[in-house]
Design brief:
Length: 120
């Protein structure tokens, strides 16, 4: 097998409206106009997609709150990490600097799904 591209990641969320605000407004991802047969939303990131799938039964699972990067997470690259940090803080998001010292920050969505933002 030769895997040639990663197509999408599915993220479980409990409240679609709250999650759409986070992924669309806070992170600024472009929503894909798509008719779904289940509650959810898709967002485009370059050639990659994030699929939000509603599951009202999920519970947040942050295994390591002190170091968010040591939880399951999705990583994005940004042109300006300082602007990204300010945008997250302006929306009241928790922000942690990478413990490794590299130009990366960690936050999480309303359901505790961890997001890494790395400087480009």
């Amino acid at each position: 097998m030769e895997i040639i591209q990663c197509l999408h990641a599915a993220v479980l969320v409990s409240n679609l409206e709250r999650s759409e605000h986070f992924y669309g407004e806070v992170l600024g991802l472009a929503k894909v106009d798509r008719s779904l047969k289940y509650p959810g939303a898709w967002y485009q990131v370059g050639d990659f997609q994030i699929h939000l799938i509603v599951d009202s039964e999920i519970t947040p699972q942050l295994h390591n709150r002190e170091k968010l990067g040591r939880n399951r997470h999705i990583a994005f690259s940004v042109a300006n990490i300082d602007e990204a940090k300010q945008q997250l803080l302006a929306h009241g998001c928790e922000v942690q600097m990478s413990a490794s010292g590299r130009a990366a920050i960690f936050t999480h969505d309303p359901d505790g799904n961890v997001i890494e933002i790395s400087g480009g």
